[in-house]
C-alpha cells in the first residue's frame, strides 16, 4: 500500500516509534530510523527491517532538539530515497517532578524534543510534499495533549502545544493532499513509562506497584496498557488512501481515559 513511499520516523529506535517503523515497512514504505541507542543494535535493527519487509532502511542519529541535525536528517533521507512522503514526529522524553523542583534544563529539553522538534521537521518537509501533492504528517502526542496530570508540567505543556500545532498545520496544507494529525496514546508499556515508575513513586511517596495501579492505570478505564501495535496500526491507517479526509484531528487511543 505504501510501496515507493518514504517515511521519516523521529524517535524510532525504541518503543512506539519502532512499532510504527515496523508497521509502515510492512506496508512497503522505505524507512528512515532515528533515535539513540547502541550502534550495533541499531545496525541489526536496520538490517532486520530491510530484510523482513524488502524495503530500504537508513538511520540518522540526529538529536531532535538540534535544528541543524534535523536538517541533516531530512537531507539524508532525500539523498537516500529521493523524497519524504510521511513524517512521524514521535521522539519524546518525560520527566516527573513538582513544578518548584522541576529542573529548568529538563523543561527546556522536553519543550525542544517533544514540541519544537516537530516544528523544525515539519517546516522542512512541507514544501516538497506540497509540490508532490501528497503527504502525511503524524504527531505522536499523548492523552496528555487533552488532559493533565500533576508533576508533568513540561510534558503536558509540550503535548498540548503539539495538539495546537497539528491543527494549525492541517489548515495550512489541507488543499495540497497533505493530512496532519495527532495520535494520543494512553499508557503504553515502553522504556519511557518504565523509567517514570520510580520517579512517580518518589514524587508521590508511594510504592511502584501503587504507581501502576493507582496512577498509571487509574484513569485508563480498560485497566490495561495500550499495546504498541495498536498505535502503529492506526498510524499505518492514517497513511492509507481511505484516511485522506482525516486531518487536523487529535485522536485518543487511551482505553477510555479521556472519556472521563
Ligand atoms: P521510548 O523512550 O521507548 O522511545 C523514545 C524514542 O525517542 C527513542 O527511539 C529515543 O532514542 C528517541 N529520542 C529521545 N530523545 C531523542 C532526541 N533528542 N533525538 C532523537 N531521538 C530521541 O518512548 P515511547 O514510550 O515509545 O514514546 C514515544 C512517543 O510516544 C513520545 O513522544 C511519547 O511522549 C509518546 N507517548 C508515549 C506514551 C507511553 O505510555 N509510552 C503515551 C503517550 C505518548
UniProtKB/TrEMBL annotation:
Transmembrane segments: none annotated. GO terms for molecular function: 3-hydroxybutyrate dehydrogenase activity. Its EC number is 1.1.1.30. Gene3D superfamilies: NAD(P)-binding Rossmann-like Domain (3.40.50.720). It is an enzyme of class 1 (oxidoreductase). NCBIfam families: PHB_DH, PRK12429.1. This is 3-hydroxybutyrate dehydrogenase. It comes from Pseudolabrys taiwanensis.
